[in-house]
Amino acid sequence: xxxxxxxxxxxxxxxxxxxxxxxxxxxxxxxxxxxxxxxxxxxxxxxxxxxxxxxxxxxxxxxxxxxxxxxxxxxxxxxxxxxxxxxxxxxxxxxxxxxxxxxxxxxxxxxxxxxxxxxxxxxxxxxxxxxxxxxxxxxxxxxxxxxxxxxxxxxxxxxxxxxxxxxxxxxxxxxxxxxxxxxxxxxxxxxxxxxxxxxxxxxxxxxxxxxxxxxxxxxxxxxxxxxxxxxxxxxxxxxxxxxxxxxxxxxxxxxxxxxxxxxxxxxxxxxxxxxxxxxxxxxxxxxxxxxxxxxxxxxxxxxxxxxxxxxxxxxxxxxxxxxxxxxxxxxxxxxxxxxxxxxxxxxxxxxxxxxxxxxxxxxxxxxxxxxxxxxxxxxxxxxxxxxxxxxxxxxxxxxxxxxxxxxxxxxxxxxxxxxxxxxxxxxxxxxxxxxxxxxxxxxxxxxxxxxxxxxxxxxxxxxxxxxxxxxxxxxxxxxxxxxxxxxxxxxxxx
Length: 494
Known about the structure:
This protein is of the alpha+beta class. The chain folds into three domains: 1-142, PAS domain (Beta-Lactamase, 2-Layer Sandwich), CATH 3.30.450; 143-219; 258-484, Methyl-accepting chemotaxis protein (Helix Hairpins). Helix content is 77%, strand content 9%. The protein has nine helices and seven strands, in the order E-E-H-H-H-E-E-E-H-E-E-H-H-H-H-H. The protein has helices spanning 15-21, 25-28, 43-54, 100-116, 133-142, 145-166, 171-212, 226-367, 372-493; strands at 2-4, 10-13, 59-66, 72-84, 87-96, 122-124, 127-129. Strands 2-1-5-4-3 form a five-stranded antiparallel sheet, with helices on both faces. It has a two-stranded antiparallel sheet with strand order 6-7. Helix 7 runs parallel beside helix 8 (226-367). The radius of gyration is 66 Å and the shape is rod-shaped. It is found in: Cell inner membrane. GO terms for molecular function: transmembrane signaling receptor activity. This is Aerotaxis receptor. Residues 1-40 form the PAS domain.
């Protein structure tokens, strides 16, 4: 189905028309119907169509149309003017698929109209009319009921008059009979016209009004015969059609309003989804940075753990060395004490030697000259003993000082060993803490990686959602366009 304005520009075409013709909506809307006109169609056929439509009557005939790809297709075009307030505002054509034999007959007719020109059959309101003597027979098919009644009455009057004349009556009788038959036939003609022609004209007018949507007035006849029943049926069809159109139009307007609201909601949702996508993308980038930083912290903590372990091991080795130093210092202290004891023995020996030298000097003095040499030796021995005693005293003092120093050093080394032990313990604690930090950092890195993966999944889903929203917006726009076309299509019948 398609509708055009009074200048034959296409205003609406349904999906079936698009599919059969092969055109897209943007390619056909706003174009004239010449876009689908096939060159095999004779111009006289379209001239008859436009003449019929402009007279306010429907036109129905087979038409050969052109597809977008250059191919063709046959349809039975059922065209009718769209009339409002007795004035055409456009035209509507509903196309149906014809029978094969109808196509063959139409093809022969149109070829004949192309080849024979003026001598070929022609179309009158979509019906084939022959030329020559055949045209006289075709006139009967296009004659109105009123004219048919009058023509039949006139023929009957002629036959009756001829019969009266053939009876050989007098002139007065013939004229009287002719006058009577004329009046009787006129009365009968008027009666037939009032009983058949006038109601049928009313039925035709009402049918055209219903078909063209000209007005919503309902015509009635106070009779229940075939004509009265047919008129009531046409009125009922018109009422049902108008009710259906009004109801569908209201529903279409409601759907159009809903589509507008859906489009607004989709626009808002599209904006929010895009903003969410931007936020998720920023969050994803931030999560990647956080993951990198946490991973760097984990690596640093791991390195610190290794260094802490190495420091703990070094401190442990230092503690062990300090223990060895303390043990060595204790050995030195013990040896110093033994040396002091030995020096004491030496000092005692020197003291005894000095006493012996003193006694020898006394004895040498008593011996006089004979003991002088011995006195000298005794003096040297006493001097040597004195020096040995002095040296022993100095050694003793040095040993005592060294012992005191060694003891003080031992205390210091012992304290240092204790401190190193504390350092080792603390280093182990630090290593344990760093190990826990490294473990926690690795776990945190894994959790952040999971969060990052979740954010990435959310970003993917958000992108998918954005695409779905875009598709929804496109579908909503398409639906809105279709509803708009539906409203326009329904408007044709209102």
